[in-house]
Amino acid sequence: AITAAIWAKKQNKALGLIMSAIGDAQLNAVKSKETAKEMLETLTELYQVKNSAMKLNCRIRLQELKMKEHQDPMVFYNKFDEAVTNLEAAGEVLSDEDKRTYFLLCLPKKLRSHFESIEAFPVNSVEYLKAKLLTEFETDKNEGVSTLTENFQAFSIHRSNRGYRGGYYRR
């Protein structure tokens, strides 16, 4: 059992941690509170409204995230995972189905068509979709599709910057 002395020591430690972690504006809001629990409840009430705004902002960022057609899936995965983590940190609870839906909406139309019959997949997780997409990307890359397209785009941009028009260079 916890004695009153041990409780008081833990309470003082918690108060000290809270006080050292907050700024002056928050300190004014909690300085009249006597327990760590009261301070945390006050801070929760104070920032609950902003938390809803943060959820909305994170949700918008996740919805606006789009994978480019020839983008390395690992770069995209990192951005997607960061957006999901930020949304969850803002207090949003995402089911596996929600994550899967967001993931599919982030894919380019060309890649999304590979996943149209998602219920037919043996595993319906985002991790499975990521692995499947990575396999698809590696297959295309090994066949030269991604590399060829990227090289062609780089070449055509390079040429157009030098004034290439219809078979001759303008001076």
Could you characterize the architecture of this molecule?
This protein has 171 residues and is an all-alpha fold. Helices cover 70% and strands 2% of the residues. It contains eight helices and two strands; from the N terminus they run ααααααααββ. The chain has helices spanning 4-21, 24-30, 36-64, 73-89, 96-106, 109-112, 126-142, 145-161; strands at 164-165, 168-169. The chain has a two-stranded antiparallel sheet with strand order 1-2. A hairpin with a 2-residue loop joins β1 and β2 (168-169). The relative contact order is 0.06.
Furnish the topology, listing elements before pairings:
Blueprint: H1 4-21, H2 24-30, H3 36-64, H4 73-89, H5 96-106, H6 109-112, H7 126-142, H8 145-161, E1 164-165, E2 168-169
Antiparallel strand pairs: 1-2
Helix pairs in contact: 3-4
Strands in their spatial order, largest beta sheet:
1-2
What is the residue-averaged pLDDT?
78
Element string (H = helix, E = strand): HHHHHHHHEE
**Mind summarizing the main beta sheet?**
2 strands, antiparallel
- Strand portion, in percent? under 5%
Termini, distance in Å? 89 Å
Instruction: Classify the secondary structure makeup into a structural class.
Output: mainly alpha
Q: How many helices in DSSP terms?
A: 8
Question: How many β-strand stretches?
Answer: 2
Shape: elongated
**Rg (C-alpha, Å):** 26 Å
- The helix content, as a percent range, equals over 70%
List low-pLDDT spans: 146-171
